From TrEMBL:
The keyword Metal-binding applies. Its EC number is 2.7.7.72. This is CCA tRNA nucleotidyltransferase. It holds the Pfam family PolyA_pol_RNAbd. Residues 252-411 form the HD/PDEase domain. GO terms for molecular function: CCA tRNA nucleotidyltransferase activity; metal ion binding; nucleotide binding; tRNA binding. Its cofactor is Mg(2+). The keyword Metal-binding applies. InterPro entries: Bact_CCA-adding_enz_type3_sf (IPR050264), HD/PDEase_dom (IPR003607), HD_domain (IPR006674), HDIG_dom (IPR006675), NT_sf (IPR043519), PolA_pol_head_dom (IPR002646), PolyA_RNA-bd (IPR032828), tRNA_adenylyltransferase (IPR014065).
Amino acid sequence: MSDNSSGNQITVPSVADDLGRLFSEAGFELHLVGGSVRDAVLRRETSDLDFTTDARPEDTERLLRGACTVVWTTGAEFGTIAGMFRGHQVEVTTFRADAYDRVSRNPIVRYGDNLTDDLERRDFTINAMAVSVPGHVFTDPFGGIGDLTRRTIRTPASPQSSFADDPLRMLRAARFAAQLDFAIDPETLAAMRDMSAELSRITAERIREELVKLLLAPDPALGLRVLVDTGLAEEFLPEVGALRMEIDEHAQHKDVYEHSLQVLRNAIDSEDDGPDLILRLAALLHDIGKPETKGVTETGNVTFHHHDVVGARLARGRMRALKFPKSDVQAVSLLISLHLRFYGYGDAGWTDSAVRRYVTDAGDQLERLNKLVRSDCTTRNKRKAERLRRDYDAFEDRIARIRADEDLRAVRPDLDGNAIMELLGLEPGPQVGRAWQFLKELRLERGPVPRDQAEEALLEWARSEGIGPRPDAD
């Protein structure tokens, strides 16, 4: 396919040409737009097929219903009709020339009559290019190809106007910086600094969606730096910017902000099966309790006592405010609360009981916890780093040896509730729960306990607690 403006060759999926012929035969234009064009120029794979057309939504729906196996009209009020066409999900949106109320981010929908006006309302020049189908005429009125070449993120209209229309675009700029390893145009970046407070118009759910996409990028640290440097992070993730604590004159603690970004990168390097959002969130937030817990001893040493506990609390609160799923909140806060427990293992001589408790407390997050603890070692002291690595290798071997003899993933008392009630002569109630918890602690302390020994220990505990079989009735 020839590019009429720059001589580049862009490959258009054949399914796009097939859809284009459908619209052309009906007398309408159809253009492939947005990320699908950008990714085609960059020779990146894309599963998105987004189109724009001069057909009105009712005409688009009519055409798609005659050619698609499924049609969705949930976006019809914004001019978007979607469908499953030749095995591909496609979205077709009528040319737009929207206005914005600049109070919310909701546009006052107004259909346009030309492609250039439609492209101007898009977020960035690299997403404001189009290829007609099936004719393959390339349209780039705002210099998107040049910005791709320069690896630059810039808005088609003035950044002040673009961000006033939709403040979420500021987060998208940071996200694209992380996804593409691009720089943000200075004027665009300045507008992000000046207009960061406008983000308050955006719902927590939409902010979370952009944050997640940024964190799943190849190098999220690039985008996170943009968020912190522009003040955008202060609007929805202030704990990360707060990590930039002043280093005391004797350098008694490392730069916690830079350390956290490095831990994030280390965690990404440890991933086995693609991006892991839970691990990345835990790595980024694992030290957010330090600013609140920083103290200085009489000898001038800097301390951060209980920053793991405080950090877990702060992470729970922030993730809830951003409407993360409950399971994600629990997983991340658990990892943060446990990330310091390993330290000292090499010197303390942990018992098997301590190892069981570590594994049991970590539960299904044990593998992530192992990765987080290893990632947390960012010391430049090679001897210290090697010692920590050896200690954790030994610790994981210890876990594996105990696991070979016991099922540590499902540590339960050696007697179930029915057996407890029968032995102690109890009815269902709180005392049974207390007895069950005692047996679980016994199991953690000793490992698997033969039934007769478990019963003997339970009876002894029950007598000390004033709990026992009821006297036989006459």
